[in-house]
């Protein structure tokens, strides 16, 4: 080995060392050591290669020529050949070839020249044709490269064949077994086939139940059983494959709902994996890792089932018929929806939302209705807003990607959002400063040493309390709700701007009516103009027009109180539309009308004139004459609210005129129809209504709607809102509230006073019946009511 050459660089002087930092010197020293080590390593590598080459050359020994036994006739033939037939040049060439190792060691059975590899051979095609063809009997096995091993001779690379998973071996065996079962079942009668299928199905059910029970009994140590249960999803027996897969899907769904923890499992970092922990902690980590992986595989199986159904993709094995994919897909969608609602905190929840969202607009009504119902359930029970935000984002993308051509039920799901408060933009003076911890400089400047010590302990305690607090902060909740509502309004405004004639407009108007009080002030003017133009266009239905009116007043009743706007045109629209209300069974619009009346008249009492209130009171009492009893109760309750809000409305209970002019009921302007010159004569007609609650309200209004006294209402009616009374007395379920009193049937009494009965040959005639009845009546007047009842009993019995 050559010695490592010493560096010719001079050592730095002491003065230079003073100028150089310690870190720089340390880096220089490390770089020098690294260069020396790499040079020595290269040198050792070259020496090792040289030794290996010498060792291989010395180990090669030329193989001796094969000696064959010669036949006696060949020896005689060779001896008979003359030696002088070979010339001297030929002998020299033979001796030269004998001295070459390649000639001694090459394969003499081949006719190829000695140095054929060094030049191109003209007979390449012929050699290729002469080589025998070998068919590949077995597939090539995949090789896995393992970590190399280093010994004295050098690095030894290791490889091994990739082991075949047991599942594939079992699947292969199962396929063979399935083919055998098909052949066997084809030879059986239908009754025997059904009996054999029942036996197989019972075996699979017992196996599924046993695995599920074992997993629930000890989830931490049952990951292998969970994997085994999931593997049954690949059932290949055609006779029971569909049923077994459905059972496994539902069983796994219930198992995951029970064993999943109440927190999100995050992947471990490299530092956490390298840290030594207790045995229990390590076991818990393994359980969490296995649970997440199995849950992920299960969701992938459900997703693949739905995709196969959507793409009508037939598998190669053809275990499941193409017609059975729909049933499997419905069960898979149901499992996804159940997990979406039950585990909103766990891993892969956003992935489930992305899967379920497009299925809300699926052409299959069963799947779409199922998804919409579960999404509504999710939005109703979501208290913090994280799941709601994810679902709203998915719906927004779905509506935009499909160019606003989706089912209206998709947008109606947004009405179930639990949003009552959002962050409102305020001035810098109104915003209270957030509490923050003092910096070290501020403490040193403003506090003494003892105060700093106490302040440090106090801040540490506050941080620990904040970390230990399990409930989400109100600020985070408001932030999530604000972001969610912004996306919802973005969906609504896009449809109002680009798709006003689409089928989504009723759902948009209904949503705006619910969340309009949370809209920012910047959009009020534009939104009111758009709503007014929609009503004026007369392209809307009756319900859509009501939603426009409700939305406009919801906007003005919230933050719009600060705006000086008089929506007289919306009062005119509602006043005109009241007489067009449907008086039959589908009276769902009455609830919207009652809500509009409450917002327009009761909550905006200061902006409503007396003439307007009188006109609405007269029209509501007229409308109560021809609607159903539940609607009449709601309208009369609204009249009571108006009389309490505007006490001067009691002038309509007097038959004297209060001014000039005549009441014009056909005029659609509530301000100019002279309502002060009429009276509420409709209430006297409603007093003869068949519904008792309607009669009670009519009598109460005729008395002037007193709060106490003989004409006052009971507590169960006076404290209820008109909308609530309308729902309480609804006739949707074909039920009458209050229930109708049924009379007890009269009992048939047998005559006991007369012991004689007519003979069998006696024939009843009209004269005999009248004479008997007359005599019995006379006797009954003398003997009392008992004989009267027995007489009629005898009369009926005899007449029969």
Strand neighbour order, sheet with most strands: 1-4
The number of distinct helices, counting runs of at least 4 residues, comes to 33
In which range does the helix fraction lie? 55-70%
Oligomer: single chain
Class by SSE composition: mainly alpha
Shape assignment: elongated
Radius of gyration: 49 Å
How is the biggest beta sheet arranged? Answer: 2 strands, antiparallel
**Residue windows where pLDDT falls under 50 for at least 5 positions:** 101-112, 114-124, 426-435, 751-764, 766-800
What is the distance, rounded to the nearest whole angstrom, between the alpha carbons of the first and last residues? 137 Å
List the helices and strands and how they pair.
Elements: H1 14-19, H2 22-59, H3 72-80, H4 88-99, H5 101-105, H6 124-130, E1 143-145, E2 149-150, E3 155-156, E4 159-161, H7 166-186, H8 190-217, H9 223-231, H10 241-259, H11 270-274, H12 279-311, H13 325-342, H14 349-359, H15 365-381, H16 386-401, H17 408-412, H18 440-446, H19 449-468, H20 474-498, H21 505-515, H22 524-537, H23 542-557, H24 568-577, H25 589-602, H26 610-623, H27 629-645, H28 682-686, H29 692-702, H30 715-718, H31 722-728, H32 766-783, H33 785-799
Antiparallel strand pairs: 1-4, 2-3
